[in-house]
């Protein structure tokens, strides 16, 4: 259980809703990290920029999205994350 609540679409601020909409358009969903970080819009913008830069193939061009996602999953598992 997280110590900071995960924001729902209804509870999000207008700024957070914009980021949620863009996240859904780009990735098909809103990551829980984005929902938690959206309590602070400046933090959420930084995390969103990092997610975009790290996952989109046309930006990095080195690894495909599937491989990047598997790396994220393995790293999370090794660090004891539940996500």
Report what the structure shows.
- The mean pLDDT is 83.
- Helix 1 (14-27) packs parallel to helix 3 (41-55).
- The longest helix has 15 residues, at 41-55.
- This protein has five helices and no strands.
- The protein is mainly α and 83 residues long.
- 64% of the residues lie in helices and 0% in strands.
Q: Span from first to last CA? A: 11 Å
User: How many β-strand runs?
Assistant: 0
Helix content: 55-70%
How much of the sequence lies in strands comes to: under 5%
Find the structural class using helix and strand composition: mainly alpha
Query: Which sequence of SSEs, written as H and E, runs from N to C?
Result: HHHHH
List keywords for this structure.
mainly alpha; about 65% helix; about 80 residues; about 0% strand
Task: Describe the protein's topology.
Layout lengths: L13 H14 L4 H6 L3 H15 L1 H4 L4 H14 L5
Helix pairs in contact: 1-3
Short description:
The protein is an all-alpha fold.
């Amino acid at each position: 259980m997280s110590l900071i609540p995960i924001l729902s679409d209804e509870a999000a601020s207008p700024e957070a809703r914009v980021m949620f909409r863009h996240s859904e358009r780009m990735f098909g969903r809103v990551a829980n990290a984005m929902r938690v970080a959206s309590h602070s819009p400046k933090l959420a913008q930084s995390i969103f920029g990092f997610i975009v830069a790290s996952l989109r193939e046309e930006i990095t061009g080195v690894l495909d999205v599937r491989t990047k996602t598997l790396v994220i999953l393995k790293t999370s598992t090794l660090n004891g994350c539940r996500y």
